[in-house]
Amino acid sequence: MSLKPLLWVLATATTLAACPAAGRDAGDPIRLAWVEGDVAGITSIFSPDGKSTIGFVDYRQRRRGDVLEAVRVARFRDGSSDEDRVEARVGRTLQTLRGRSVIRDAKGVATVDITIDVAGGHITGFSGLGDERQTYDERVELPPGTYWGPLIFIVLKNFNQNATDGHLAFRTVVATPKPRVFDLSWFDRRRPSCVVPAGRSTSCGLPSARPSTGSSIRSSACSPRTPTSS
Question: Which of 57, 82, 162, 197 has the least C-beta neighbours within 10 A?
């Protein structure tokens, strides 16, 4: 099993500049600069050389009261897919409650199925098929600031609101295929300011993600959102 789910999430994550904030620990929930609501959309997945479309991502986000539900499904041309479902409490901060990650092969058979209970600090599930199948039932420290899948998009959208000296760290869970828990750090490499709608100019970051494996992936984007009330 490759790290495709982690690489895809990091490579497609977006950022939005806000304003600097005081330091925080990796497990602390991030502060939200933007109101989260109902969102749905589809985007293409391109080959490494950018010349062909190899799949698409279906993203859906729904808010009910202070609970946000988000689903991100990446479907590839060969029939394989990886899916992340998360629930989080939103307000002034983003506090993850629970979620599930499923990877399916080209035949649609689940090869990884992991349930993550952040509030209970519990990870269960399996990876592999037949004789290679492994089951997991682990008690781990999962603070409210544990993010993966679609929540990483929200974390990066609020990057500057929570970063200190251009750094932002958070706890994450990744199927490798065994579930791994580690802290992921993002580094902001500045570039000239960009202009967002309404003529407001803001500095957009170019972050690099560095998990404990030492790999580095970069992405950048700007998009408008509604600020939260103070």
Answer: 197
User: For residue 144, what are the contacts with CB-CB under 8 A and spacing of at least 6?
Assistant: 27, 28, 29, 93, 95, 96, 118
Q: Tell me which DSSP letter residue 5 carries.
A: H
What do you get for the CA distance between the two ends of the chain, in Å?
45
The rounded distance, in Å, linking the Cα atoms of 149 and 146 is: 11
Using one digit for the tens of pLDDT, what is the confidence trace for 34-68? 889 999 999 999 999 999 999 999 999 999 999 99
Task: Give the list of residues 6+ apart from residue 41 with CB closer than 8 angstroms, or none.
Answer: 59
Contact 30, 93 (CB under 8 A): yes
Strand-pair partners of 83: 73, 102
Backbone angles phi and psi of 158, in degrees to 5: -110, 25
> Quick one: pLDDT at residue 113?
96
SS3 sequence of 65-96: CCEEEEEEEEEECCCCEEEEEEEEEECCEEEE
Q: Which pTM value belongs to this model?
A: 0.71
Which DSSP string corresponds to 110-123? Answer: EEEEEEEETTTTEE
> Strand, helix or coil at 152?
helix
Tokens of 58: 């279906």
